[in-house]
Specification:
Blueprint (H helix, E strand, L loop, with lengths): L1 H37 L1 H5 L1 H8 L10 E5 L6 H17 L3 E5 L6 H8 L7 E6 H9 L11 E16 L8 H10 L5 E4 L5 H13 L4 E4 L3 H10 L4 E5 H10 L3 E5 L25 E9 L4 H15 L2 H7 L5 E2 L4 H22 L5
Helix pairs in contact: 4-11, 6-13
């Protein structure tokens, strides 16, 4: 009896130790599980982790708005709708083009610059936006800092056309006539500060000739006066002048890109014609808000580039005299910076002011 009473406390002690040991083991296992969830589990289940952190994996999960800064039926609108249609087909999510013209393209771009940076509100821009940076003075957004380049979609030359009654048939002959009689030759444009104006101003600067600028309220009346003989020449878009060239109402002297245009392969470039290094190319491209996740921008870039590289897209763009580009986002960003700097130098050199 005495021995039994002496053993009882020892049993109780052993039982308490066993219970404490089991509790400590449970605590250790729970702690290990928490560590595993933070480290080892994340490494082993990487796709699940990505699904929580990379928005590009589920993009787009709703309709995408693609703003066009200009009116319907123009070159930017044609390109926007061609891209939107093919993106819709590829993603099975609507990509809807919305025309938001005004302030030479500023309104749409400002809307996108201030929109949520999630890839669901995008904008097209054109080469005129690189001119606006200098010509418009203050803008409600910074083209370089407030927007993320996606890709340059197209480029398109301008073509220097003259009235066929004029005696010169080459650019060299035109330059010689201008040198012989400074200020005698004039050129029309679609308006002060537009590309048809700047193309003529750049020719004057690079060739060392004095040309008189005659601004119009749009390209159509300028074209009509060249055909009618009231104005000597015009830097025109190919879509605007192609039919008049084909009919003989206009004579093309040179295109403004460094390579010949597929739409006018018989017409030499300005560079070939003696004005070395001359280049004026219109272009269109796609932009997103600046803080858009890089993975979403990359997904947009890859999708658009794939579309732009198809023969079908090239055929659709030739209507506007455009040719597809489809480069990297970084390349497009550098192109925009170079264009801004180029036109800033010319505008300041010539003292061009906006209307």
């Amino acid at each position: 009896m005495t021995q039994s009473n002496e053993m009882k406390p020892l049993a109780l002690i052993n039982s308490s130790q066993a219970l404490a040991h089991r509790q400590a083991r449970r605590d250790w296992l729970q702690h290990s599980a928490r560590l595993a969830a933070l480290g080892v589990w994340g490494a082993l289940d990487t796709p699940s982790l990505w699904a929580q952190t990379d928005p590009a994996l589920s993009y787009p999960s709703k309709p995408v708005r693609l703003l066009c800064p200009f009116a319907p039926a123009g070159g930017v609108d044609i390109t926007s709708r061609a891209l939107a249609q093919k993106l819709t087909e590829a993603w099975s999510q609507p990509v809807v083009v919305e025309n938001k013209p005004g302030a030479n393209g500023t309104i749409a771009v400002d809307m996108v610059a201030k929109s949520s940076p999630d890839g669901y509100t995008l904008t097209m821009i054109s080469s005129s936006h690189s001119v606006n940076v200098t010509l418009q003075g203050h803008q409600p957004y910074d083209l370089i800092k407030d927007l993320a380049p996606i890709t340059q979609a197209t480029f398109q030359p301008y073509v220097l056309v003259v009235n066929p009654q004029l005696p010169f048939k080459t650019l060299a002959e035109l330059i010689a006539a201008a040198q012989a009689s400074p200020g005698m030759l004039n050129y029309g444009s679609s308006g002060l500060g537009g590309f048809s104006h700047l193309a003529g101003a750049l020719l004057g600067s690079m060739a060392g000739i004095d040309l008189t600028h005659v601004p119009y309220k749009g390209g159509a009346p300028a074209m009509a006066d060249v055909i009618g003989g009231q104005v000597h020449m015009l830097f025109s878009t190919i879509i605007q002048s192609h039919a008049h060239i084909a009919s003989g109402r206009l004579r093309p002297l040179a295109v403004t890109t460094l390579t010949r245009s597929k739409a006018l392969p018989q017409v030499p470039t300005m560079n070939e014609s003696g004005v070395k290094g001359y280049e004026v190319a219109g272009w269109y491209g796609a932009m997103a808000p600046a803080a858009t996740p890089p993975s979403v921008v990359d997904k947009l870039n890859k999708a658009m580039v794939k579309i732009l590289k198809t023969p079908e897209m090239a055929e659709r763009l030739v209507i506007d005299g455009s040719e597809p580009v489809g480069g990297s986002a970084a390349d497009f960003g550098e192109h925009i910076k170079k264009e801004v700097a180029k036109w800033r130098r010319l505008i300041k050199e010539l003292g061009i002011k906006s209307e």
